[in-house]
Structures are given as structure tokens and as C-alpha cells.
RNA sequence: GGUCAGUUGGCCGAGUGGCUAGGCAGCGGUCUGCAAAACCGUUUACGGCGGUUCGAAUCCGCCACCGACCUCCA
């Protein structure tokens, strides 16, 4: 098997051969959700993308430690160390304790992730659970001279840091450009430099979520949690750090600076960023009113949705685009994906019924190589999907006796289908075919009566039965000397 | 204004300096009592204008449009 995995590294803006720091171990950290409201569908895309990456790394035989955090404290509105705490605001709004907010949305996040059939991460640390680690890291950064305390708050000194290390490398920006863009500091601001960001924020008397620190009561800044937790579980240097593209400029840039300032090493070898989700061409966002929640997408209960789409259809839809491209949601696109997905699932069923011949007229080995080639090229799932439809074509042709397959190839094809469709793409067949024995027996009985009618050329009766059953969601397919049926919806 | 992406056929979406991804939809056909499913065939697209090249949708430049982040505003 070709293990020549290539990953696009945001840091270098190039595709690079993936070489883990300590093979066969791979450490991967993905910025998780801030659990102050229902998980955004864009977040889901990021986590589904990294689920695919995680699954493929596992399939290649790596011993992967996948860390995805839960942000449950310290995330202020506007990401600029000012404004209200997201949890406190929501708590006030819903008349709950901040920790009730955290619990509520953590649970719903896990539920949605499980519905999308994502594997749970190896470790899912929370910011609140790692306050002391964050404090220790801040102390170290102060000791190294890259942070300063001011009236119970601690800020990172970006300008000083940038003299020793490149600061904006993740977005290819120079410090001067960044400085140019910021406005003058207002008089009461405690920051020395315009670009400085908070590592520790002093609490106000009314702040509910606060902890003691060497600088008094307060809470950690948003960026420090990821640096502290990734260091704790993956070490000062680890292989892959991922997240949405919107985190690249600020959050990840500051993460690099913090870790570098603390332990004097670049924390991450490969930075990976997933692209945004759009709806009818524009970015999905709450303010634009074009965002829907995962639940609304499943049920179709949203003005922009003609109807609901199953979680696996959505997962398949996402797999049909590359993680670094924007993906556009529209009813037309989703319905197209739905057709394709069930075609793929049906082929999987057909595959299990195929019989082998003495020789093969199809090339399964080549197909398999193509599948690996696609995934090895920066996890190119759309190309993989296109090859899987080649598999679908082969399956159907063999089923129609238009091609032949020998036992060895058939086993290879079955394995390929299972590995790529279910293990790697993380899909599962969700066709509603659970029916009681009674229902099944009744349908068989009715269809046998219809078969009799057909034999007597009583097509009026046979069509009447078929039409009625079709209306009830039972799809009938006549075969040479009998029938097949399945229940849809 | 700055930085970075992108603009592909009816829709969604890959990709590559020459060998026409794939899915959905459409059309024609095979099969079928008729259907459905499946299969076969079919519609040859790469924002505009220049340039490099034997050859560019693919490389370069300019322009237009769209998006993200920063800024602004909240």
C-alpha cells in the first residue's frame, strides 16, 4: 500500500509529504466548539472533515491521539478581550447558571456529532478543567519576557515577540500591515501595544465564572486554553493542528506565539484549515439569516429548506467537496447528493449478493489504487467518491451479467467498499427498511396475489396494487420470475 | 483599505500545460405487459482582455465579480 500521504500545510501554503514527528504515533489537535449555543452547521463541517482525516490516519495504521477541546469559559464576544462573556450573556438570557449553559450545549453538541457518525476524539478537554495549566503557561510566558501584568490582567506583548519570531506567518502578514489596520488605543486601555491580546482577564464583581490566580481573581483569555491543552496532551511539538479558516488569522496566530514564547519551539508541524459553508452563495451566518441548525436541516423546518435531509445524506454531500473549498448548500444540491448517496448504498447491498465467476473482466486492483491515490492527495474525498461510483458501475454490471468477477476480486471489492465507504467516509446505510415480520409477510402476500394477476394478464389489477403500494412508500421492482420490494421514507 | 482564496457545463463539485473526473437533472436507447431499478449512448464547460507556448480552462499580467479574515461598526 502506498503510504505517501500528502497534506496541504497552511504554514507553508504548500502540499507536503506527511512525516509524523514520532511514528507510528500521530498527534492531532482540533479547535472544538464554544458551547454557549447550538452547534453551528459550519462547525459540523469542520468536525466532519477532521473525522474523515482522523479515520484515514487510523486506517493507514497510525496510532492517533485526537484531541478536540470544549471551550466552556473565557470566550468573549468579538474575540477582542472586550465585550461580554458569551456564557454569562446566554445564561442571563436563558435564566440559567453559566454551567447549565455549558452542560446543555455540550450534550447537544455530542448528540449532533454522534448523529453525523463522527468518532469521538481520544481526549476532549475543557478550558475550565485546565485553569491551572493555563496559569502555569502564562507564568512561563511572563518569565520569558513576552507578557506583562497590568492591574490584575496579563497581556501578550506582540511587538516584542515579533522582534524575535515571525508573528503573522500563518496568514502571510507583516506586523506593520497589522499595526496599520488597528486604531489608536483608547485612554483607559491597559494594553501596551495595539496588537497585544489577553492571556488572563481580571474579573468584575458580577463575573460568575472566575478563578484565583497570581494576578487576582479572573479568567483565562480565549487563545491560551488551546496552547495549554495541546501542550499537555500532545507535547510542546505535535503533528497536526486543525480548525476552521476563520480561526487562522487571530486564534491560531496567537496560539503559535504563546507556545513559541513559552517553550521556544514551533508547536505544530502541519496546520490544516477547513473552508466555510455557504448558503445559496453567501456565507452561512446568523446575522444574514441564512443559517440553519443541524436539527432544522434534518427535519426541513426552516424557510430556506424545501424538506429535510438525512444526516448521512449531508455527510455524503460534504464528502463530495474538498475540505479546503467552500461548500454551498442549496435544496437542488442536497437533493442531487441524496440520489447519489442512496445509489451508493444500494450498490453496497447488491455487492453482497453478487456471485463470482472463474475469471474477471474488471480491474479491481486499479480501482483500489485510485482510491488510495485520491485520499493520499490531501484527503481528496470528492475524487474518492468519483472512484466509488466506478465501483458502483462495476457492481451493477456484474449484477446484470454484463461483466464477470472472480472470487479474489469480489472479496477485494467487498473489502474496498467497506473500508472506503463505511470506515473512512464514515457513512452508514440509513434507509428505512426496518419492518416487522408481519408487515413483510403482508407485503409478500399482496405481491404474490399481484403476481397471479400478472400471470393472468390482469394488468389493471396488478397496476392498481403497485400504485397503491407505491403511494404507501413501498417501491416494487419486478424481476424475471418474481419481485423485489423495499420501504422508503 | 490590507492579507488570502475563488470565478468550471442546467445544478453541485474535482482536476490538469496536450489524453474531455464524478454525482444530480435532461435527452435517446436496451430491458419490461407498462413501469421502477439497472445498463448503454448523449449534451464538450472552465469570468473578461492581453501575454508566454507548437499547444492554456491549467503558467504570467491587468480588469471585473464573489468570498473569508483583519480594519470599521455593533
Largest sheet: 4 strands, parallel
CATH fold annotation of the largest domain: Rossmann fold
Distance between the termini: 40 Å
What name goes with the CATH superfamily of the largest domain?
A: HUPs
**Global outline:** elongated
pLDDT < 50 runs, ≥5 residues: 183-188
State the share of residues found in helices, binned by percent: 40-55%
CATH architecture of the largest domain: 3-Layer(aba) Sandwich
Secondary structure tally, helices: 16
Oligomer: single chain
What does this 3D model show about the protein?
A hairpin with a 2-residue loop joins β5 and β6. This protein is α/β, with parallel strands linked by helices. It has helices at 41-59, 86-94, 98-115, 131-143, 158-164, 175-181, 222-234, 248-263, 294-299, 311-319, 331-353, 364-376, 381-399, 407-424, 437-455, 459-471; strands spanning 6-9, 14-17, 25-30, 63-68, 147-150, 153-156, 197-202, 218-220, 238-244, 268-274, 277-279, 282-283, 327-329, 474-479, 482-487. α11 (331-353) crosses α13 (381-399) and α12 (364-376) runs parallel beside α14. The model is unreliable at 183-188 (pLDDT under 50). 40% of the residues are buried. The longest helix has 23 residues, at 331-353. The chain has 16 helices and 15 strands. It folds into 3 domains: 6-274, 3-Layer(aba) Sandwich (Rossmann fold); 278-424, Orthogonal Bundle (Isoleucyl-tRNA Synthetase, Domain 1); 437-487, no CATH class. The structure holds one RNA strand of 74 nucleotides.
Amino acid at each position: 500500500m502506498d503510504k505517501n500521504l500528502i497534506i496541504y500545510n497552511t504554514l507553508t501554503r504548500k502540499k507536503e509529504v506527511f512525516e509524523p514527528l514520532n511514528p507510528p504515533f500521530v498527534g492531532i489537535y482540533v479547535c472544538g466548539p464554544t458551547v454557549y449555543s447550538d452547534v453551528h452547521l459550519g462547525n459540523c463541517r469542520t468536525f466532519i472533515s477532521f473525522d474523515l482525516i482522523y479515520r484515514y490516519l487510523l486506517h493507514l495504521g497510525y496510532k492517533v491521539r485526537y484531541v478536540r477541546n470544549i471551550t466552556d469559559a473565557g470566550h468573549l464576544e468579538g474575540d477582542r478581550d472586550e465585550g461580554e462573556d458569551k456564557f454569562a450573556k446566554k445564561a442571563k438570557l436563558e435564566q440559567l447558571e453559566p454551567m447549565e449553559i455549558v452542560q446543555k450545549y455540550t450534550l447537544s453538541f455530542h448528540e449532533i456529532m454522534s448523529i453525523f457518525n463522527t468518532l469521538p476524539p481520544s481526549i476532549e478537554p475543557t478550558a475550565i478543567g485546565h485553569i491551572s495549566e493555563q496559569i502555569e503557561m502564562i507564568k512561563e510566558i511572563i518569565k520569558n519576557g513576552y507578557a506583562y501584568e497590568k492591574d490584575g490582567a496579563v497581556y501578550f506583548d506582540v511587538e516584542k515577540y515579533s522582534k524575535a519570531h515571525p508573528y503573522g506567518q500563518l496568514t502571510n502578514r507583516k506586523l506593520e500591515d497589522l499595526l496599520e489596520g488597528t486604531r489608536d488605543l483608547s485612554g483607559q486601555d491597559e494594553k501596551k501595544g495595539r496588537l497585544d491580546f489577553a492571556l488572563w482577564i481580571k474579573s468584575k464583581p458580577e463575573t460568575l465564572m472566575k478563578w484565583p490566580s497570581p494576578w487576582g481573581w479572573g479568567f483565562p483569555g480565549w487563545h491560551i486554553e488551546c496552547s495549554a491543552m495541546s501542550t499537555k496532551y500532545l507535547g510542546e511539538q505535535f503533528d497536526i493542528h486543525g480548525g476552521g479558516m476563520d480561526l487562522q488569522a487571530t486564534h491560531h496566530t496567537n496560539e503559535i506565539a504563546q507556545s513559541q514564547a513559552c517553550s521556544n519551539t514551533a508547536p505544530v508541524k502541519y496546520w490544516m484549515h477547513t473552508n466555510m459553508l455557504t448558503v445559496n452563495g453567501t456565507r452561512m451566518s446568523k446575522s444574514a439569516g441564512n443559517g440553519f441548525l443541524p436539527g432544522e436541516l434534518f427535519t426541513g423546518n426552516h424557510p430556506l429548506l424545501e424538506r429535510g435531509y438525512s444526516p448521512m445524506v449531508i455527510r455524503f454531500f460534504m464528502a463530495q467537496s474538498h475540505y479546503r473549498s467552500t461548500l454551498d448548500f442549496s435544496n437542488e444540491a442536497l437533493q442531487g447528493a441524496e440520489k447519489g448517496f442512496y445509489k451508493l448504498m444500494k450498490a453496497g447491498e447488491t455487492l453482497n449478493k453478487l456471485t463470482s465467476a472463474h475469471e474477471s473482466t474488471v480491474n479491481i486492483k486499479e480501482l483500489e489504487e485510485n482510491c488510495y491515490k485520491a485520499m493520499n492527495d490531501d484527503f481528496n474525498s470528492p475524487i474518492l467518491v468519483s472512484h466509488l461510483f466506478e465501483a458502483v458501475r462495476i457492481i451493477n454490471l456484474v449484477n446484470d451479467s454484463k461483466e464477470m468477477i472472480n472470487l479474489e476480486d469480489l472479496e477485494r471489492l467487498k473489502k474496498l467498499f467497506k473500508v472506503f465507504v463505511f470506515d473512512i467516509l464514515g457513512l452508514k446505510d440509513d434507509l428505512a427498511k426496518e419492518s416487522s415480520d408481519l408487515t413483510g409477510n403482508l407485503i409478500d402476500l399482496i405481491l404474490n396475489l399481484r403476481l397471479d394477476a400478472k400471470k393472468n394478464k390482469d394488468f389493471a389489477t396488478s397496476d392498481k396494487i403497485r400504485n397503491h403500494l407505491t403511494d404507501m412508500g413501498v417501491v416494487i421492482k419486478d424481476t424475471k420470475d418474481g419481485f423485489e420490494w423495499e420501504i422508503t421514507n
